[in-house]
Write a structure and sequence with these properties.
Layout: H1 2-31, E1 41-42, H2 45-54, E2 82-83, H3 98-130
Antiparallel strand pairs: 1-2
Helix pairs in contact: 1-2, 1-3
InterPro entries: Flag_bb_rod_N, FlgB
Subcellular location: Bacterial flagellum basal body
Subunit structure: The basal body constitutes a major portion of the flagellar organelle and consists of a number of rings mounted on a central rod.
């Protein structure tokens, strides 16, 4: 029963983990907007989510010495980070475009909140399905 619940929520779990990692990356870009020679980084969320969900069944298995141990899913941790190409070069070598970073940060934040709401709705639906009829 737990396996079925965990597999039903695994996609959303991976999406949230990738959203969180992207949020941290974008926040790092914003924080280093004035750092000379800092190169802004990001990753393609859709491609990374597709790659992470393709490995759902083939995740690295750790040795479990006790029946209660949970498996670690490391597929969302290794994303293909890319450097952004600046629209305009700066004299200090920094490639952070604050307007783009703020837009991407806000977009990712809204999508993160939407993913949480979707996950909450899914859990509520599963809980209702498990309740006996009244």
């Amino acid at each position: 029963m737990i396996d079925k619940l965990s597999s039903a929520l695994q996609f959303q779990q991976q999406a949230l983990a990738l959203r969180q990692q992207r949020q941290e990356t974008l926040a790092g870009n914003i924080a280093n907007a004035d750092t000379p020679n800092y190169k802004a980084r990001d990753f393609d969320f859709a491609a990374e989510l597709k790659r992470a969900t393709a490995h759902q069944g083939g995740a690295v298995k750790l040795a479990a010495t006790h029946a209660g141990h949970m498996q670690l899913n490391s597929s969302a941790n290794a994303v293909d980070m890319q450097y952004r190409t600046p629209a305009q070069n700066r004299l200090d070598g920094n490639t952070v475009d604050m307007d783009m970073e703020r837009t991407q940060f806000l977009n990712n934040s809204l999508r993160y909140q939407a993913d949480i709401q979707f996950l909450d709705d899914k859990i509520t639906g599963l809980r209702k399905a498990m309740q006996p009829e009244q």
